[in-house]
Amino acid sequence: MGVRVTSGRSLLAAMIGVGLAAGVQAANVPDLGPLPPIKVNAAKAELGKRLFFDKRLSGDAGIACGTCHDPKQGWTQNKPLSDGYPGNGHFRNAPTLVNVAHKKVWNHDGRIGTNLNDMTREMLTEDYIMNMDMRIMQERLKQDPEYVKMFKDAGYGEPSNGSVRKAIPEYLNSLTSRNAPFDAGKMSASAKRGLKLFKGKAGCIQCHNGPLASDGKAHNTGVPENFDIFLDPNNHQAFIAFAMFQGIENYMNLKRDPGYYNVTLDSADVGKFVTPSLRELKYTAPYMHNGMLKTLNDVVAFYNMGGGMDSKKSLQLKPLGLSKGEQKDLVAFLLSLSGDQLTSAKHVWQGKYPAEYPVIENWKHVRN
Amino acid sequence: MKKVIKFRPVLLAAVAGVMVATGCVAQDAKRGMSGPPPLAPLGPPPIPADNLQSPAKIEYGKNLFFDARFGGDASTGCSTCHEPDQGWSWAEDISRGYPGTVHWRSNQTIINAAYYGKLFWAGSVTSLEKQAKSASKGGVAGNGENDIMEARLALIPKYVEMNRKAFGTEWPLVEDGWRAISAYERTLVQRDTPLDKYLLGDKSALSEEQIRGKKVFEGKGGCIQCHNGALASDENFYNIGVPGVKRWEEDGLAQITFRFELYAKGSTEEMYRTLKDDPGAYFRGKNKWDMGKFRTPSLRYAVYTAPYMHSGQFDTLDDVVDFYNAGGVAADGRTTSFPKTKSKLIKPLGLTDSEKEDLVAFIEAFSGDEIMVEKPDNPPYAPLFTKAELQAAQEAK
Q1: Which of residues 191-230 of B touch A (CB under 8 A)?
Q2: Which of B170, B195, B257, B283 would you label with B31, given CA atoms 20 to 30 Å apart?
Q3: Residue A156, domain extent
Q4: CATH of B37-44+191-364, one of 1.10.3210.10, 1.10.760.10, 3.30.457.10, 3.40.605.10
Q5: DSSP-assigned beta bridge partners for residue B237
Q6: Is pLDDT of B27 > 90?
């Protein structure tokens, strides 16, 4: 009996799906829902928090992780393209780090599918991001008595590169959505209508599914290129350096971001980008991998038109025929996936960093 | 038979060593055969067969030498630390480094670097091309990565053009950038010093005092044992007793770099934990008998390159001469942390005050006029594509 009821529902949902513009297996995807809790080791996360906001973790000590992932700007930067390392620009929008620990794949092109330990290494050492020689980083940390104590208290022993790559992810584990109306069951009537559209007529859930509202897969939605990548030589140099280092052919003539092609080297994947989570969108404008859409209204309007122009655009995208009111409801629902801003001392390091590295006294007679 | 041949040079060297140590150098030099090569006028620099000079290459290299974008965060290029106003070197004990760091050794002048077969204080590379590469990439030097530096060159139209003239490739390659810089550096030579003139026959080029100093240099001072030939360097490695960098005891930033260098250059755990001085040439073959040895520097252009020694511990040439006169001990009593490898050539010299003055006067004869150049303006970046081209590409997606 129960089985029958279930299949009946699935069938019904599938029929609704077909009937709607997007028309796909909306019912076969994981449902939205609350994020599972993550256990956090307090001492390790506290250490990670101090590291995250410490500019001494970049090559020229000019930027910290928190520079481009700024808590006050939704743990991203509210500009289309990230700043990148001093001396160059960047070619993609910084993604928020709230819920980053729930992801299974990182970077807009999905080039890291292992864990946050590897992501931390990638961000610290890439020349156009933080350009840090981690051997220097290790010695900087050992020169700061507060770190020496914190690493020890966290059970890591003396400061080391390996422990940094564990402590920062542990801290990132603590950056998860809090009190989102969707999770708290406090959605407005408009948001509730939006949720229906999200799962139904608008077909968003095809890709934006599961607790994170992301399938973790790459799709081509036809987002227009951000010409500033190519017209600003500071951004373009970061893009060229990236493409050259990744081994993408003909990088000097590229006039578009190849996206997921970087991972598969299959031309069918040019222009695909990993579905981002929809949580915390309220704080993370502008949107898309290159920041080309300024507002959530723009994003909904973009999908309502069936996405952008690209011969390889996903067949899942079709004009949706949403009314103005429906679009408004959809935006209301999207906003209900955003919780409290994580800007208090619980998540943001409030302490000062020393202006100079203290000298190790009696240097000749103590062990390094 | 083979064994005998093998051993003979060693024996000879040992004998020569004894003679040198007992102060017979000058006589040996006069006799020719077994003594060190005499001082000589500096000829044209050697040009490697795989990187021939051309005006286009030199011009391109000069521009790159003075462009800080040829480094990590576009703040630190060759000339940032090899500052022409500071003897094409850096006038502090240890060189300034990449922002957020300090170096760990004294900065060496670019002038006449073209003649060295062993570059860097520990002789870690054998060509200017590799020196430029190492310096622009090192974490406490240029901290640049190949890809970002190469990308920057491509976005500077003047460099694309200069590179095409010099190397013929459509886009500049970072390796060719270092080759161009090396070609430029091979023009930064000084061959008309008072000493060169003197050795070429102009006996008025040296003062009486300097001529007396030359005698001390070649005789009682024993300087010529290592500072010989046209470059005034035998390019061998010695531990002459120079103390380590005092700043390591007083400056947190310098302590960071010290440990980084030990770690990065390859040390045993015990060395990393306990060493408090620069092991120098040890890093080449990891042989303990090379601890604290450094490649003999040229004395040319030394007037402009204070402070002196690999650790920059002496502010003046007088201090340097006093150090040698004391047998390789600084005025404050500091000396090398590796006494076991200290050269037997270094012994108290017993020079009188006037001999020391003469010697310093003579060392000054290794320097001519200060070499200054007009720094080129850094040409601007420009986009590679027009908006119309990007628009067309967008529509073709």
Answers
A1: none
A2: B195
A3: 42-177+345-356
A4: 1.10.760.10
A5: B295
A6: no
